Amino acid sequence: MSSPDSAATSAGASTPPGPKEPLTPVTAALVEFLAEARVPTEHGSFTMKLFREKATGLEHVAMVMGEVQGSALVRVHSECMTGDVFGSLRCDCGPQLQFALSEIGKRGSGVVVYLRQEGRGIGLANKLRAYQLQDQGLDTVEANQHLGFAADLRKFDAAAEILATLGVKSVKLMTNNPRKVQTLKDQGVQVEERVPVRSDVQPENERYLGTKARKLGHHIDWLG
Ligand SMILES: [Zn+2]
Fold it and tell me: How far away, in angstroms, is 166 Cα from ligand 1 center?
């Protein structure tokens, strides 16, 4: 199995040398806006705004409710077809997405940025292969590494630019993942608060959540 050449480099963020340069103004360099429409949901009415990432062609979505200019309640969610669409119990993505939409609905404003980077960036086919390996005893991190990928290939620069395009200046970020907080900060997003995302521990995802907490540094305080 050959490892993709991007695997080694894209996981670690490079730190720019010297004093911090002022943030570049919003130029929408990475993404272009394609279309939008009202999408009513059980959590209230959202505007779905579709963006295309120029470099990859990936079509990312921002589900926007209410006034989000300035400070906003935000979740940056990476696509997980198995969890988000089919309710897979192998992970907690579906409940996390629903939690975010529900919290935004209660507040009447906020944004879910939905990034099309399936399986922590390795794609659906490789995610299914990783699941096979997990059924043979590897944990989620080991399985990705076995396939030649870093533990987490997700990138959040497009999300930062989409938020800037929406006029979101600072975020109350719904996540358990401190790396996501740091990565968004590195991309120029002001994170004023981390809002923990509660999801149920099930027999099928207990080991997965444990690995996320232990190996990927997620704050999952309610795990035993
Ligand atoms: Zn998932």
Answer: 26
pLDDT tens digits, one per residue of 84-113 = 999 999 989 999 999 999 999 999 999 999
Could you tell me if 75 and 175 are in contact, meaning their C-beta atoms sit under 8 angstroms apart? yes
Report, as residue numbers or ranges, the catalytic residues.
152, 154
User: For residues 139 and 170, is the Cβ–Cβ distance under 8 A?
Assistant: no
Q: By residue range, what is the domain housing residue 95? A: 28-117+154-215
Cα separation, 162 vs 26, in Å, equals: 10
Ligand 1 centroid to Cα of residue 78, in Å, is 8
**CATH number of the domain that 94 lies in?**
3.40.50.10990
Beta-strand runs (E) in 54-201 = 59-65, 70-78, 110-115, 168-174, 190-195
What tens digit of pLDDT does each residue of 175-220 get?
998 889 999 999 999 999 999 998 766 667 777 777 777 777 777 6
Is 194 part of a structural domain of the chain?
yes
Query: pTM of the entire structure?
Result: 0.80
